[in-house]
Amino acid sequence: MKPGIHPEYRPVVFRDASADYAFLTRSTATSDKTIVWEDGNTYPVIDVDVSSASHPFYTGRSRTLDAAGRVERFRQRYGAAK
Question: Is the overall model pTM greater than 0.90, yes or no?
Answer without folding.
Answer: no
